[in-house]
Fold this sequence. Notes:
Distance between the termini: 104 Å
Shape: elongated
Number of strands: 17
Number of domains: 3
Mean pLDDT: 86
Largest sheet: 5 strands, antiparallel
Strand order of the largest sheet: 1-3-8-5-6
Radius of gyration: 38 Å
Low-confidence stretches: none
Helix content: 55-70%
Number of helices: 17
Strand content: 15-25%
Structural class: alpha+beta
Amino acid sequence: xxxxxxxxxxxxxxxxxxxxxxxKRASPNFGFTSDAHWFRFQIDNLTGHELTRLIELPIxxxxxxxxxxxxxxxxxxxxxxxxxxxxxxxxxxxxxxxMPVKLAPGPNQIYIRLASTGTIEAPFLIWDPEKFHEANRDxxxxxxxxxxxxxxxVVYNLFVFVAIRDVNYLFYILFVxxxxxxxxxxxGFTFAYVWPDSVRWNSIAISTFTASTGLFACLFTxxxxxxxEFSRPAWAWVSFLAVSCGVLTALTxxxxxxxxxxxxAALTMPVALTALVLGYWRWWRGAGFAxxxxxxxxxxxxxxxxxxxNKFGLIPSTPWTNNASLVxxxxxxxxxxxxxxxxxxxxxxxxxxxxxxxxAHERKARAAQDALISLKEESNRQLELRVKARTGELNQALxxxxxxxxxxxxxxxxxxxxxxxxxxxxxxxxxxxHRRARRTGVWLGLIMINVDHFKKxxxxxxxxxxxxxxxxxxxxxxxxxxRAGDVLARYGxxxxxxxxxDSQLTSSAVLAEKFRIxxxxxxxxxxxxxxxxxASFGVACGVPDQQSSPQDFLATADKMxxxxxxxxxxxxxxxxxxxxxx
Length: 582
């Protein structure tokens, strides 16, 4: 029975002349309405003795819930519940409305009046107390798992944000936290466990967190998709939605809940739809990291659509429809994690491209410098003026190169797989130490190492096994290269190189032999298999003179490495500079 005036009393609705209408739905849902609704149903107790039952209304945000139990003409039990009353006044301390009733033998009439400024749903459930507690335990377990996942993601990403200070993580954390509080308010857990005495706050919490969730979703979308750089109109539209959600968040404290909850529900769809459309647009325009972002918002949009359809009375209220948006948000959390990985790979590719550009500039600069030196030696006074002009251009190019090198220094000095120095770092160190050794007259040693039959390892066990072998070799080599100034680096592929300062030929060869034996004895446990390796070593040592260059040392060590390969691998070949002894 619908009471549009909200004036009908219990005595009036129990009058035989009152007209009742049958409910055709198994789970009545009247959507957003300001009318009061009366429900009447009969429970027949055929056992011949009194039974205790629990009547549950699993919708915790109804303002007024008045319960009447009538047997014959006698009113036996009355409850006045609702989320406008302190939680402590509830008969059963539960997030939903639980109404205990002792059923007399025979027919028992139940009357329930519902009134609310939000939606009215009436999926009443009648429970045996024992069955209720079992179902409640299972339901709380499921809710606990889902809520726990969201809570863990909030805490985890908070630590990530503190570590890297990426604003995307901040907006993501605020978005997930707002949604988590919205869900806890919607399911009544916050009123039961967090603010049981804050009736006024509890009455607006759903609309407040609905609006704040939309606000942080818009801020995350603008930041993550870089809309300000990509499309100013798209950025302006999302910013408008963010401002709208922010204003609505503030207005929930002053405007009626019946208005703000409708506005919040109305804003969720354009926010989610906008995030989804812009994500697909960015993906279509080449932003590969947006693919998982699109899948994430697709799941959220479906969840929000199901929840809104339920709240507007278009579909019945079930555990699935009530928790559809939570399932969608769980998928969002997982898929956005993949999105962050995608974006990290995208940024890594950009760094590699920048490094290649810097190396190209460096080669051009060196070529220009060689040309200038030759020109200076052969030119007359007139040509020297041109050299000065060209030198000015070179200095400008070197300044630009230094700026780029400073930016890429951290990224370009460490090998990402083995976490030891990379070739660029080694080349620079070799040039510096070669000049120092030439000036001071000390020995310089160079050991080149190549893993034997490495391609066979990749072909037989896979590239991941090959990566594991290279990591194990790098770990094995570190203790052998312990002196200050000595350099260990990955030279490329399966090749490593060691630069030894003040090391004569004998000591360098002995060190190479020790390491060769260690490699031969190394056992690498990979996926239950034991992998074994051998390596070939080429050693070059000498005191640099004015005619030698770093490349001479590399060429000699490489020649010795080639000789070790030809001599059957798994051996050490060494040579002094400008000497044929091995």
